[in-house]
Fold this sequence. Notes:
This protein folds into two domains: 1-36, no CATH class; 52-239, CATH 1.10.630.10. The chain is 43% helix and 11% strand. It has helices spanning 2-13, 22-27, 38-69, 71-85, 96-100, 103-115, 167-170, 193-208, and strands spanning 121-125, 130-132, 135-137, 142-146, 211-215, 235-239. The strands form three sheets. Strands 1-4 form a two-stranded antiparallel ribbon. Strands 2-3 form a two-stranded antiparallel ribbon. Strands 5-6 form a two-stranded antiparallel sheet. Strand 2 (130-132) and strand 3 form a beta hairpin. The radius of gyration is 21 Å and the shape is globular. 16% of the residues are buried. It is found in: Membrane.
Amino acid sequence: MKYVSKIIEGRRVASVPPHKDQLNELLGIIDSKYQLSDEDVINQIFTLLYSGYETVSTTTMMVLKYLHDHPKALQELRDEHFRIREGKKPDEGIDWSEYKSMTFTRAVIFEATRLKTVVNGVLRRTIEDVELNGFVIPKGWKIYVYTREINYDPLLYPEPFTFNPWRWLHDKSLESHKYFLLFGGGTRVCPGKEKALVSISLFLHYFVTSYRWEEVGEQKIMNFPRVQAPNGLKIRISSY
């Protein structure tokens, strides 16, 4: 916090912004209706670092792990991306319609996230007394709703501990169900949901069409208190 505060102090007194980045965007808000205090800016920066960076990078790591362990899924994903690349110049980018056509890629991301959920739950405050299974949660209490276990309910996801991205294609309503809480839900659903999916999908597009990879050494993945690879997920990359 002190480190970020010093950076903010330096940015505010600088005659010319040293960087064109998100911090300067937050500090440069002119409209008094939306101006942020230094404390607000710090909170936003930490939110972006965790919610917008660590979640995406960890999910990407787990997608690569599951694809490595499931060659059939990897091949189907590769086929989807090579179809998109057909007729394209090497330096030609991806447009929105092509991204939206990555249906199997989206299914892979959802399935990897279901099994290795980076955000385990959501924080809420009760606005009235809530009775649940004979227990009363008083009004005004802050509660942590642990949503991860829903992902392992066999009534919702048959063979819940099996990596099966095809389940999202066979039942396309899964993403809209009320128990689909990978990105939260309701009016407080993650505003960066689609951005995260775009980032991971584009990474996969260029990665799987250009490279192959194999794991190196022993891999250790922790699920609690959050998904992480304490020693990293080491891979050896070669041209495809």
